[in-house]
Amino acid sequence: MTLDIICQRLHNQLLSQTKYTQPDQVVEWLGAVQAQDYAGAKWALGLRLKTATDGAIEKAFSEGRILRTHVMRPTWHFVTPADIRWMLALTAPRVLPHLTYGDRQLGLDKTILKRSNTILAKALKGGKQLMRSELEPILQRGGVNTDGLRFIHLLMHAELDGIVCSGGRRGKQFTYALLDERAPQAKTLGRDEALAKLTRRYFQSHGPATLQDYIWWSGLTAADARKGIEAVKLEFEQEVVDDQTYWFPASTPIGVPSPTVHLLPDFDEYMVGYTDRSSIFDVAHTDKLDSRGSILNQYAIVIAGRVAGTWKRTIKRNEVAIELSSFKPLKKIEDQAVYAAAQQYSQFLELRDVVI
Question: pLDDT per residue over 221-277, tens digit each?
């Protein structure tokens, strides 16, 4: 039987079915969720819950049931408090080299970074959650130069060193909090155990996927990725398609009725979780994307598991206006399914109307 990559991925990524009711359950299942577009990442979680609202996910974030930090690749991800310590220990050494050149150009060395971490830890101690605009002058008063990009690098190092992570938002502004206080029960794992755990999380939630997909998603070396697969391979099925070995859980997903439509946010795990996206996106449509030319940073219309266009949204007081740009004219039944998906998004935002 030919491997149905799309059907399996929709199932394992919780897009065609889900048993979860809490956002931290989804984050734990997926391992980590790319989250530099905070609003988009909240919608990515909402799509994978039985019922969800933006407000409920915001509440979980404010309460620290999901955290946001730099991990795996050099960008923000949602992770759970239970996973953040061992995941940072495993992947931070792979992210730090991305900062090396900038650190050198900015004159940041180990002594400065240690001083910055100490000052930040002292400023946040006792449950304080402070915005960037509050932390920067504290560092300056402590004798740490924060000019230009230095401040951003200092905060990223503090995240990767396990000193700080996200606090709750204050209005629309993000805050930082002490990781020790935000996730006091966070476990550390031996390196081999952590490697096996991350590998298992990835293939259970993103499979069918290849070694190269996993290397891209995790940021690990090829040697570590292979070692992780070797540790858990007996827990998964494998199949060779076009000379590529795909690993996936031994589940039996139900067929996805057509046309099933998902309005995905940018950087959704359904697209960003793989280096090879040929099964879901035809590169012949690249010229229909915006000037950035990448499907990753587009809000995507996905019909029956394949990218069929892009969408934009404008949120107003009582409604959300959605602008669609399909790659080809949609059939009437597809139009109806798109409208239903747009209504789902409107309900997630707790707005009264949706305008297309």
Answer: 999 999 999 999 999 999 999 999 999 998 766 666 678 999 999 999 999 999 999
Helix (H, G, I), strand (E, B) or coil at 110: helix
Enumerate helices (H) and strands (E) in the chain, giving the number of each. Answer: 15, 13
Q: What are phi and psi of 208, to 5 degrees?
A: -70, 135
Q: In 3-state terms, what secondary structure has residue 76?
A: strand
Determine whether 352 is exposed, middle or buried from the number of CB atoms within 10 Å of its CB (0-12, 13-18, 19+).
exposed
Q: What are phi and psi of 131, to 5 degrees?
A: -80, 165
**At a CB cut-off of 8 Å and minimum separation 6, what does 203 contact?**
209, 214, 229, 232, 236, 247, 248, 249
At residue 1 the predicted structure's pLDDT band, cuts being 50, 70 and 90, is very low
CA nearest 262: which of 9, 10, 8? 10
For residues 238 and 329, what is the distance between their CA atoms, to the nearest angstrom?
Answer: 37
246-276 as b/e: b if 16+ CB within 10 A: bbbbeeebeebeebbbbbbbbbbbbbbbbee
User: For the chain, what are the domain ranges?
Assistant: 261-355
Would you state the structure tokens that stand for residue 68, as one six-digit string? 């946001």
Report pLDDT for 355.
84
Q: Tally the C-alpha atoms within 13 A of residue 262's C-alpha that lie toward its C-beta.
A: 27
Cα distance between residue 25 and residue 45, in whole Å: 10
Q: By the 8 A CB rule, do 208 and 248 touch?
A: yes
Q: Which amino acid, one-letter code, is at 140?
A: Q
What string of DSSP letters covers 139-159?
Answer: HHHTT---TTTHHHHHHHHHH
Report d(CA 77, CA 166) in Å as an integer. Answer: 11
- In one letter, which amino acid is 209? A
